[in-house]
Amino acid sequence: MAFVPFLVLILLISCCVAVFGNATLDGASQVSLLLATAVSVLIGKMQGRLKWEQLEAEISSKVASCASAIVILLLIGAIGGTWMVSGIVPTMIYYGMQILSPEWFLVSSSLLCALVSVLIGSSWTTVATVGVALMGIGTAHGFSEGWIAGSIITGAYFGDKLSPLSDTTVLASSVTGTPLFTHIRYMMNTTVPAFVISLTIFFFAGLTMHVSGEGNVNHFMVALQRTFCISPWLLLVPAMTGLMIARRWPSLVVLFMAVLIAAIVALLVQPQLVRQVAVSDGNVSAFDSLVSYKGIIQTCYGNTSIETGEAALNQLVSTSGMAGMMPTIWLIICAQTFGGALTATGQLRDVVGYVLRLIRGTASLVASTVGTSFLFNVCMADQYLSIMLASSMFKETYQSRGYESRLLSRSCEDGATVTSVLVPWNTCGLTQSTVLGVSTLTYLPYCFFNILSPFVSIFVAAIGWRIYKNNENDNGNNNKVIS
Q1: Which of 84, 281, 445, 456 has its CA 20 to 30 A from that of 199?
Q2: pTM here?
Q3: Within 10 A of 394 (CB to CB), how many other CB atoms are there?
Q4: What's the pLDDT tens digit per position in 357-366?
């Protein structure tokens, strides 16, 4: 009976994906989670294993545990708007596009997508904007669509995974109780090797393929120069942000300062764009003394649309601010409600009990986490649900066995985030195949990073590289690695 709520959720999510497609996350998944919660509660009541007060306490506790994550997500939305309108992200894109050449196209496209994805924290936006442009450039060069899409997705998901602005990265760190930047630094142990191997493959493939044609990115570069004030001085903002991260400032402080600094830069360097955002709805006069104030506030919380003269570029530079994070926040609250019901009824403990019978050591524990995360991607067709449910299932196990929470958060991301795009009926697979115009099964063999990441994660655990107990410090001299 403990598996029934999961089966109900899988059925509901499958129906939602079939009916709503890419819009499943706009509300259908959330409703499905609440319905599955009701089933869990009903079974718990029938079995006499549930007290209503306990249910409310568990739900309140789990939702409260994500409070900081919700604030972080709101700040991430604000960063997306301020970094775009201030010209920081457009400057990075402008200089990044200059590295493209036919022989280096596959490697360059992966690196460019990785750069953009790190900056904006979204693989979906990267693929839908820069990725679409690269598909046209790659086709002009003569590369097959599978290779092009594979290089784009490889870079986009690498950047998404390591970006402090990524909602999946924030989600994995928050639900496991891992500090955001600790989670990101620890993921580099598995993410960087997988990405380097992927780039090596793309490098030799680009040199050995006989391609013709010349890609042209001049239109984008001219449009960026025409719309934004492009200057290398703007790169000081991400450099300062990186310095704060390196000095291990608290995540909330770093993100807030990144918003504040970018907002000031936008007012000083791109005042015409700030005013354009403010008067876009026609409610504020261009001569209103508070127009700049309205523009910068709206950049932080709402939609921004900037006309560049290029349709694809317009989509890239448009942002949704804090409001764009609301579906994810809504999903987190509903998923934590579902997790609270599973915990209060003891169903989660029963399900984990079956899985734990297969676990013998660190490698099998990580493999079980990675495999379960991928299985949830296949069954529930959503990376967010996969991360949250897998972390809920294994969190107590990692704690009881003395493992650090960062091992759990990394394993969930290695199994859920990067593999979601490989499942044709997953929301990620549906979105990327639709946006790029390439079927999932066509680009799947060339998404080397997404395929390698789960195996690298298991391999690293098997050899015991930087796997520590809670009372051990990886900066010390007497660390004992768990084998």
Answers
A1: 84
A2: 0.70
A3: 26
A4: 777 788 889 9
